[in-house]
Amino acid sequence: MMGYNPDNPMIVQGDMSVLLETNSDLYIEVRDTLARFAELEKSPDYIHTYRITPLSLWNAAASGMTAEEISEALEKYAKYPVPENVFIRVREQASRYGKIKLVREGERLVLVCPDKVTATQIARFKGVKPYLMEALEDFRYLVEDKNRGLLKQALIKVEFPVEDLAGYVDGADLDVDLRETCLSGRDFSLRHYQEDAADIFYASGGVKGGSGVMVLPCGAGKTVIGIASMSRVKQKTLILTTNITALRQWKAEILDKTTLKDEDVGEYSGEVKEIKPVTVTTYQLLTFRKKKTEEFAHMEIFNAEDWGLIVYDEVHMLPAPVFREVANIQARRRLGLTATLVREDGMEDDVFSLIGPKKFDVPWRTLESEGWIATAACIEVRVPLPSGLRMDHAVADQREQYRMASENPVKLAVCGRLIKEHSNDNILIIGQYLDQLQMLSEEFNAPIITGKTPNKERQEIYDAFKKKKYKVIIVSKVANFAIDLPDANVAIQVSGTFGSRQEEAQRLGRVLRPKGEGIENVAHFYSLTTKDTSEQEFANKRQRFLTEQGYAYHIEFEDVSDEVQKIAEDRYRKLLEVRAARAAAITEEKEESEEEAASPRS
Do 506 and 540 fall into the same domain? Predict the structure, then answer.
């Protein structure tokens, strides 16, 4: 393959990296093609860097893309000849998915290899060998059912992704269908991509379906895809969510859009313990234990019931202890839902092997162009650190520098300006640090929701926001996940979790849901950062996710007067005084408690 075109925007390098020029007329077309089989690593203004990895190729193969199609795309858009080793690597890695299969032969679970060399090779790996039992004829190995997930985990670590065709046990029957008219009175039907996703997952009940991950933007209706899949499987279902608010939104959606009744759908939470034909719980509850030395109190829910389907909402947030349990339940159908496969802990390959490969995705910009999610304007506003705080910042350690930049009180003035500019809009102010959020709440007389806010109070605030009693609410990172506020059309991010792309995706998703009648279907996402600090560097990492989805940040520089800087400096020093007083009080209380414990008792 020697074809190339100097006018093309893509340079493919021998180390499997790909450089993409963003000022080309072909940029959008090439970006959308690359996203199917490569991962974005860097996204400065003019040249983006992608990397073709084994996992990205296996996901592409699992979703139906062939090595030939990938190679043709590389050649089609390349500015210069593509190194021959790249084509070889693509062919070798993409072909590995499906090369080794797990199948069911009667009651036996069997690992099938394509040839003697592969069978011998995998048996020599220390991490794989314990899970292989008897060697059978025709390059096959007998495997214990309990090791089905563990074997897949071990094999993917040595770059042998397994195609699991062993099928699933049937759970208890569930009589469920989708409604044509919701309980709320609205007409209901699946969008075309929701129908496609559910069909691909179910695969007519065959072994080619039943496990996998669906990647769709926040606001695209991933919950509906879960419900549609449930209506196809028609078996007892367990749904895992990120928090109790999401749990109750799932339950409300199920009752609104299916023929199930309240007695069919159970909540298993810290407040209610119900096991019903459809049960919704949280990762937090499953991983709860009183002491680190104790077992997880509620983890047995996985095996205690006759589930036919388990749905993992926000699967990229799956806690490590849940992974271990998932490895034991490979005979159940498993559906993962997420807006991004990025995990900050690097465990994407465990999602692939235990939940299933990516089976379906739709680019954000595609759904935006079709009107299914709001058009997004992403703006980064860079603000100065008050001159009186620059020396404090310079001598602080790295973590304190980041927090200082994140809590920069100049951001209050910027929030005030944005609230005035968007006086007719519905605004979420989202942040990481509670002292900062409390300051914003007091400044703008806006309600605040944090991890300590009781669930009842949270719901009252959300409901009041939906009814437009509040135009601005302040939310901590508890609002990163599964909060259904469709009329929110402005998000102001004042601080974040270092370089988390997950978080950036979820926060943008809070304002991408299609707007209600009379509201323009446009969302504004502002990210406030302190310029020339580590916060700005971490913001660049978070924004990489948005670049992957086709969004670009417009950067603004806030012009702040000396007076505003002085006010901000005074506020920050008062904040430190409050924090120091709180720390001192906690220390004093601890010392008194220790003295009381040590004193002789009468």
Answer: yes
In a domain, 601, yes or no: no
* Domain closes at, from 336, 362, 388: 362
Mean per-residue pLDDT for 101-130? 95
17-21 and 47-51 strand pairing: antiparallel
pLDDT class for 594, splitting at 50, 70, 90?
A: low
The total of structural domains in the chain comes to 4
Handedness of CA 350, 284, 504, 385 (dihedral sign): negative
Average pLDDT over residues 169-183: 95
Q: How far apart are CA 475 and CA 483, in angstroms?
A: 11
In a domain, 541, yes or no: yes
**What are the tokens at 470?**
């509040």
Strands (E) across 97-172 are located at: 100-105, 108-112, 135-136, 140-143, 162-165
Phi, psi of 156 (to 5 degrees): -70, -25
pTM of the model: 0.78
DSSP 8-state class, residue 181: B
Per-residue pLDDT reduced to its tens digit, 54-88:
999 999 999 889 999 999 999 999 999 999 999 99
| Distance (Å, whole) CA 495 – CA 492 | 9
Strand order in the sheet with 490-493: 448-449, 472-475, 427-430, 490-493, 522-530, 375-383, 553-557
Spatial contact of 90 and 71, defined as CB atoms under 8 Å apart? yes
Is the pLDDT at 549 greater than 70? The verdict is: no
Amino acid at the residue 495: S
Residue 301 lies in a domain: yes
Residue 171 belongs to a domain: no
pLDDT in tens, 365-386: 788 778 887 777 888 899 999 9
Average pLDDT over residues 581-594: 73
What does the alpha-carbon distance between residue 443 and residue 425 come to, in Å, rounded to a whole number?
18
- Distance between CA atoms of 400 and 549, rounded to whole angstroms? 32
